Amino acid sequence: DAKTTQPPSMDCAEGRAANLPCNHSTISGNEYVYWYRQIHSQGPQYIIHGLKNNETNEMASLIITEDRKSSTLILPHATLRDTAVYYCIVRFPSNDYKLSFGAGTTVTVRA
Amino acid sequence: NAGVTQTPKFQVLKTGQSMTLQCAQDMNHNSMYWYRQDPGMGLRLIYYSASEGTTDKGEVPNGYNVSRLNKREFSLRLESAAPSQTSVYFCASSVTGRAEAFFGQGTRLTVV
To answer: Which of B35, B41, B43 would best serve as a mutation to test chain A binding (most A beta carbons within 10 A)?
Structure first.
């Protein structure tokens, strides 16, 4: 699975969009980009995933660059409850579905 | 729906004691996983079970054993607990090949 690089931390104002970058320059053609988050003391929560096209769901949007070497998770209207560690994971879909979590980005939403 | 349920939520062990962490899911998922998370660190995979009757080692399997009792249940056993195993343990499950994994709320284990 490709390695990912995320900033260690970032702040965001409540009500504003939060843009979380992820670099995955060694991604290969069949690897997907997944995003999870972990709110303090809770288990990780799946947010969204994509291969090539931009994706949107009720929680967030995922923008993947054309060369697929980086992506951005967008939380459109951040709330205090979005304060969490966000993990960007790149992997092949396969039968065993192991996830390799790195250090992630600690996002603090401020009132 | 309970999702993924872990028991116990908290546990304190003395060095050398043994215990089993229990995990059950009610989503009919084939695959189940055990992770540990040390303070300020990301999650590391201990063991996983792609389907009932199969188990495989992850990144950090030493000191642990697992049992996939049936499709619903996946337990993690510490035979002789060590202080280095102080951590938060998360169980997860997923449909094989699907993107979403569902995690339990964790077991906070302290070994003294």
So the answer is: B43
> For a pLDDT cut of 70, what percent of chain A falls above it?
93
B74 touches chain A (CB under 8 A): no
Tokens of B25: 């899911």
What pLDDT band is residue A19 in, cutting at 50, 70 and 90?
very high
Contact A98 B99 (CB under 8 A): no
Q: How many CB atoms neighbour CB B39 within 10 A?
A: 7
What secondary structure letter does DSSP report for B28?
Answer: -
pLDDT of residue B39: 84
Q: Helix, strand or coil for residue A98?
A: coil
**Residue whose entry in the numeric block shows the structure tokens 């997944």:** A34
- The C-alpha atoms of residue B74 and residue A98 are separated, in whole angstroms, by 16
Pairing mode, if any, of strands B10-13 and B107-111?
parallel
